């Protein structure tokens, strides 16, 4: 029998607010343990939570971007369970009345068509602290220490809807995660770094016979630290579940853990062992009423989304889809392009220079564009010099290398190093004449039909001029003098 | 006398400390007495007087604080073993406010563990006894605060009231105690028992003293999301306005079977006295009264089961010798040894109330009942300015009398819990004695109209010659 996969993510995204969700402690990543704590986030007796408005604003932004209905009133609830990294013995989360519901995220499906993956709900909650074990694993440790710096850092939980366009393949799952991360980064609500634990996923997966309308028993998989592992876990789980079903067995609802080393999923707990979290409205916090006017204001201030931007780059500037995708994939690049475009008319040429030459330098140096290795205005100036022919493309690369390393502006580099291209046709013609007379053999072979040797002559001219000769003009002159 | 410089803060402070030396062996109102710090604070208060700076009404006056309000650097136990070594890193807002006003902290008062109890017998540090007659309980859970005022071991005391915990001990010890409207006093730093019911309040010898203390306790606090951002009146100002034009309601459901006959007579006499001097007294009905105690114990225990989850031995407080985390050994042993019987009983009850499959039947049902009880009071307050009720079904009982009968103990709160469910202000005022033990009645006001409650209370004290 052929099966269809129903894949559904629960994504936890750490919001990049400066302070925590319920107190004023800073949220800086990597601070020494327990230096960003106070009575509230360590659960001291008598301490009370006060909601961070910026976190709500970020959540609203995400809700709007994911096309959700924002609930005018939502409620914080306590999720009760014991764990040493949970200071109060409960996590403040949202349960019955979440902030936002019924949205979608559009991805490109495996068939190449747009596919709107349903989002069931988005809610705000606080993160827990972090256990630091004395050994590699909890089991092997003599003791564990707790760092509460992360306790009460705001998290956005985004739960996909298995009933509305669920993901069907590992490839679509990957596309969903990539797109989700891209959108959230564009919104500037989270860095979404997987390494820093700012983007964490659990995934629910079930199989059903193709064409069936009911759902099979689902498994939730936890403990996947990268997109690669998520893919591997899904691959394994799809095989496993199909195997059970094909051999006539039955699946039961359970939570499974991904084992990175063995690349398999292993049972963690069954549905019967699922803890009763005894959710109830948190009496320390009031119901959260969201002012529609405030929402409209946030909506007005939303940035342009990657899809919109992509279309604009293609339609308005005639940039190829390939280049436009590369420019919009990452918000930092896209922002850099936007800032450069203010100073540069030839957006096509600008995009090529970013994609080919700037990307090469970034890759070689390991520097990120967000570290501002080059100023947009200077970068555009360089491209403009090339567009007008003041310098050649080859010289442009030399200038860019120096700009990247030193932060100097292109004009001073051009002047200092005398890199202006040779515009005087008489001067060029003389040099071309020299090259022709120095290479009689080549010339005769070209005349005999070896047209590709043309480039050799051009190269010779370039060498003589240190690359300052405009290639087009040189080509024309050689053509003239050799063939006519 | 302080303001007129007839007596210094140091002299008053020394005199209450001397009373403590004389009475504490019997009464045991305090868990911690901050003797040295009190004298230093008193000297600083006297310096402020001498320097002729403008000082607050509380400057130099001894104050006792219930041991469930966090005091920075001073042990705060909540009457529990589990916090027997807990030294808070911060001051509760209420504490900060009274200390900033120049009050002299005498010590931290005894209480039922986590404010769960009506007799102060549930303290891990031993019971407090009633200063009027040490064979009797002082009421609870703020029994230490009430007893300290009654025994002259302090002038003012701060308590907390979740189901009657200020009003009951005030009545039992023959002092005055007021629970303000929910949200009037910040709960920041008040160790939570039941967050939607807890409220900090004042205990003193008279309505006037309570008004003075309330002036310094109240006020919006942005550290407590449930704190009310409302105007704070001067409670002393309207105190002497008398009774003319005031309409008082007597809810018939509060004067039925179960109320001690002689106590009932005392309360009705008090109402008659108010009536005679200008107040209108009418009968009213609060029909959902019979549901109040059950409703209270469902909501209070549900919230408590969650609020007390943080006492796990990980970060502070008592921790068991067993440190095995994997099997839950440390948690289980810490909580088994750290909490007393009544606290465990309420955690179990509350956990059950919130459990899957019972939540709707208990927690949601109780919330629905709470709404009905509130509607009763809203309706009544369309016709009256305040309501007079008993504080408890009888005058104080003896130590040990009800400790083995939790349900009997719970019923002691039958007349007080409604005000926590509705958030309304209520004050306990003394009206004579029954068998030589203090009789008290309760004055209930509209939300944020503590001024009316205090005004009627003061008028009564004046008429009865107790002020």
Describe the structure.
The complex is a heterodimer of chains A (484) and B (467). By secondary structure, chain A is α+β, with helices and mostly antiparallel strands. Chain A folds into 3 domains: 3-212 and 269-297, no CATH class; 304-416, no CATH class; 425-483, Arc Repressor Mutant, subunit A, CATH 1.10.10.410. Chain A contains 15 helices and 16 strands. Chain A has helices at 53-65, 170-186, 227-246, 292-300, 306-317, 321-328, 331-341, 347-365, 376-387, 393-406, 410-416, 425-438, 440-447, 454-465, 471-483; strands at residues 3-14, 69-70, 73-74, 77-80, 90-93, 100-108, 114-126, 130-133, 144-147, 154-160, 199-209, 219-224, 254-259, 264-270, 280-281, 288-289. In chain A, the strands form 4 sheets. Chain A has a 9-stranded mixed β-sheet. In chain A, helix 5 (306-317) runs antiparallel to helix 6. The model of chain A has no long low-confidence stretch (mean pLDDT 92). With 467 residues, chain B is α/β, with parallel strands linked by helices. Chain B has one domain (1-467): Amidase signature (AS) domain (Amidase signature (AS) enzymes, Alpha-Beta Complex), CATH 3.90.1300. Chain B has 14 helices and 11 strands. In chain B, helix 7 (261-276) links the parallel strand 7 (247-251) and strand 8 (280-284). Chain B is globular. The mean pLDDT of chain B is 95. At the A-B interface, loops of A face helix 8 of B.
